[in-house]
C-alpha cells in the first residue's frame, strides 16, 4: 500500500488503530467485538476505529460474522506494507518513519519489562541483539536484502498456517534499523 496523503498517515496515528491492524494481521477476519475482547477495549471503540481505517483502505469488510449480525474486518493484503517513494513528501515520510520507530521501540520496551516464564524463554533463545558494523551504504542495503530473505519462509508460513498454529509458536516482531553513526567533522 502506497501512502502519499498526510491525512492517511494521521489516520494511523491512534494507538488503537495500530493495535487493530496488528491484530488483524495475526487473526483475520475478526469482528469489532472479538477485537475488543482481545485488546481490552469496548466494541464500540473498535468499531469506530475499524471504520476509520476502512475509510483510508487499511482494512476492508470481510462480510458478516457467524451470527450474521456483526461485520467482520480483514486486511486487504495479508502482508501489509506501507511504502513511500524516494520523491514523496518529506513530512509524510517523517511521520510514517517516526510512527513505525515509536511503535517498535514501545514493543521492545514492553518485552524488556515483561517478567514471565514465556518471556524468559524467548529472551534466552531469541532476545535482543545489537551490533556495530563497519559497512558502506551498498553493504547496508545488501544486509537488509539478506535479512528479508532470511525471514521470508517464516512470513509465508504464518500466512499458510494461520488456522493451524502449533503449540510453542507465536508471532514475533522483527525490526531492523541501520542507523549510521555521525561522522567526525573537522574545522580545517
Task: Jot down its keywords.
Arc Repressor Mutant, subunit A; mainly alpha; 3-stranded antiparallel sheet; WH_DNA-bd_sf; 7 helices; globular; 188 residues
Contiguous runs where pLDDT drops below 50 for at least 5 residues: none
Report the order of strands and helices: HHEHHEEHHH
Spatial separation of the terminal alpha carbons: 47 Å
**Name of the level-1 CATH class of the domain at 6-74:** Mainly Alpha
> CATH superfamily membership of the domain at 6-74, which one?
Winged helix-like DNA-binding domain superfamily/Winged helix DNA-binding domain
* Largest sheet: spatial strand order: 1-3-2
Proportion of β residues?
Answer: 5-15%
Number of DSSP strands? 3
Number of helices: 7
Radius of gyration: 19 Å
Describe this structure in words.
The protein has 188 residues and is mainly alpha-helical. Among the domains are: 6-74, Arc Repressor Mutant, subunit A; 129-180, no CATH class. The chain is 52% helix and 6% strand. The protein is built from 7 helices and 3 strands, in the order ααβααββααα. It has helices spanning 6-12, 15-26, 32-39, 43-55, 90-113, 117-125, 137-160, and strands spanning 30-31, 60-64, 71-74. It has a 3-stranded antiparallel β-sheet. A hairpin with a 6-residue loop joins strand 2 (60-64) and strand 3. Helix 1 runs parallel beside helix 5 (90-113) and helix 3 crosses helix 4. It is globular and about 60 Å long. The model has no long low-confidence stretch (mean pLDDT 80).
